[in-house]
Amino acid sequence: MALIVALGAMMVLGIAGTTVVYYSTANTRSAGYSKASGTSFQLAEAGLHEALSVLTNQPANDPTDPSLLATRTSAYSTGNVTWGGTYDSATAKWTITSVGRVANPSNLPPSEATRTITAKVPIRPVMTQTSQTEAWNYIFSYGTGSTCDMSLISSVNVETRLLVTGNLCVRDSANITGSQTEVLVGGQTKIFGSAWIGQSSAKIARIDSVNGCRYESTTPHNPCTSVDKVHAVTATSSPDLLPPPNPNWDFWYSKAAPGPLNTCTGANKTGTPPTFDTDTTRNRSAPAGNLTPGSSYTCKVYLGTELLGELSWNNSTKVLTVAGTIFIDGNLQVTQTGSYTGQATIYTSGSFYMGGSAQMCAVMAGGGDGCNFTTGSGGWNPNTRLLAIVTNGAGGFGGSVEADTTVKLDSSVQWQGALYGGPYRARILSSVRFAGPVIADEVYVDSSLQTEPFSTIVTSPTGLPGNNAVYALPDKLELFSS
User: Fold this and answer.
1) Where would I find the beta strands (DSSP E) of 13-154?
2) Residue 4 has pLDDT above 90, yes or no
């Protein structure tokens, strides 16, 4: 009996021990596979983030290029991940699939732990950006090498922040006024005749001139003083000079919408918009465009179902509607008085011209008589309404624009907006009133001209030179699953 009891006890203990060993081994295998599965999920997430980094790497990558997320495998120390995506141009959405793989540490089937993540990523148009250069808050002449790199002559009144990389000359009865006005000069500031900068009872905010100021042929002072006919709250010889922004011509030639390669079609086009191009090369081949012709037109381009860009003119209400970045491979002009709504940058391979006493206002004055140049409530806010013209060619319009000039506002014109003339002259003639930044090798201003103050620009339309070249970005994930 004792032997039988002992054998039974040993059998029970053996079964119990075997069961313990089996479950312990199974649990170890399960724990190892579970850990591998968790790691594979982390790898799948890493693959998703790699895909998103490719989409946001601009301007190097185009987020609407269907071949951008071709399937590929990335190796990590813990395993690997295979990821890729497909693009639906009708909805402007990517479907990204990422599969993480980790070898099963138990060396038993399955041979690897896998986890799959799928996500839809919409691509949204970028219509505005935080301004990335302070240069767009000045009238900015960046050319150097002349006795006078920028000249203000008779009866010119400047009430705008002014930046001159070289020498500034203020002549005759010209003057610079305004309690908020700043004058930054990389060379010397020279005053002649009855001209003045600020007054003892109405000083400008500051003048920073590297080589000081000089009145006529008297001894220059550095920093500037009242003896030089300069009155400023602050005067130094250390201006915060800025480099001129550089347009990304090739990028915007290919991506602007409306533009040479992304024009309006079908129901998105009515009337006769300006011709954006006549070929596929940036060569100033398009006929001269008119933003304000005698008949209405509409031109819209969409990214999926969202507006990417617009250039439309209502000839009845005299309102120009703009959005996004637009490119016209030729000269451009404004011939009628009107106003604009929206924010946009228009690139033109040629010159820009306004004549015939035309007016293009962000905000019209009461009764529609000229522009409202106030900066307070009811006035112009360039952070919510700004049209920027960026030019790249001189001359044109049958000689109306000189061979050294790329932007010309002819006599008695009114303008609110931003102008870029690049390596040429921006010529602004007599009796013109305008508000907004102007950047050119030389900003030439004629007699009886009035520059009006404008609010600091912190939000600008996409495409403005100096900003990152971005026209669309991925938005937050939709329909994430694992």
Assistant:
1) 72-76, 79-88, 93-103, 112-125, 128-130, 139-141, 150-152
2) no
Task: Name the DSSP letter for residue 339.
Answer: E
Return d(Cα 229, Cα 215) in angstroms, integer. 7
pLDDT in tens, 170-212: 999 999 999 999 999 999 999 999 999 999 999 999 999 999 9
Buried b (16+ CB within 10 A) or exposed e, 260-290: bebbbeeeebeeebbbbbeeeebebbbebbb
- Residues 275-319: tens digit of each pLDDT: 999 999 999 999 999 999 999 999 999 999 999 999 999 999 999
228: left (phi over 0), alpha (psi -120 to 50) or beta: alpha
Task: Indicate the SS3 state at residue 170.
Answer: strand
Instruction: Give the Cα separation of 190 and 196 in Å (integer).
Output: 10
Q: Give pTM, 2 decimals.
A: 0.90
- Work out the burial of residue 442: count CB atoms within 10 Å of its CB; fewer than 13 is exposed, 13-18 middle, 19 or more buried: buried
Distance CA 84, CA 116 (A): 12
Q: Of 471, 466, 56, which is closest to residue 256 (Cα–Cα)?
A: 471
Please name the amino acid found at residue 228: D
pLDDT of residue 166: 98
Using 50, 70 and 90 to split pLDDT, how confident is the model at 2? Answer: confident
CA distances to 336, 352, 453 from 412, in Å: 13, 16, 18
Q: Is there a cis peptide before residue 223, judged by omega within 30 degrees of 0?
A: yes
8 Å CB contact between 47 and 98 = yes
Query: Do the beta carbons of residue 99 and residue 106 sit within 8 Å?
Result: no
3-state helix, strand, coil in the chain (%, to 5): 15, 40, 45
Compute the distance between CA of residue 352 and CA of residue 355 in angstroms, rounded to an integer.
10
* Residue-level pLDDT at 12: 58
What is residue 27's predicted lDDT score, i.e. its pLDDT? Answer: 46
Task: Give me the mean pLDDT over the 45-71 stretch.
Answer: 95
Q: Mind spelling out the 3-state secondary structure of 277-337?
A: CCCCCCCCCCCCEECCCCCCEEEEEEECCEEEEEEEEECCCCEEEEEEEEEECCCEEECCC
Tell me the three state secondary structure of residue 15: helix
Q: Report d(CA 167, CA 145) in Å as an integer.
A: 8
CA 385 to chain centroid: 14
Q: Which residue has the tokens 């089937």?
A: 109
Strands 433-435 and 386-391: unpaired
What's the token pair of residue 93? 């959405």
Q: Which residues contact 412 (CB under 8 A, 6 or more apart)?
A: 357, 430, 431, 432
Of 331, 319, 358, 327, the closest CA to residue 344 belongs to 327
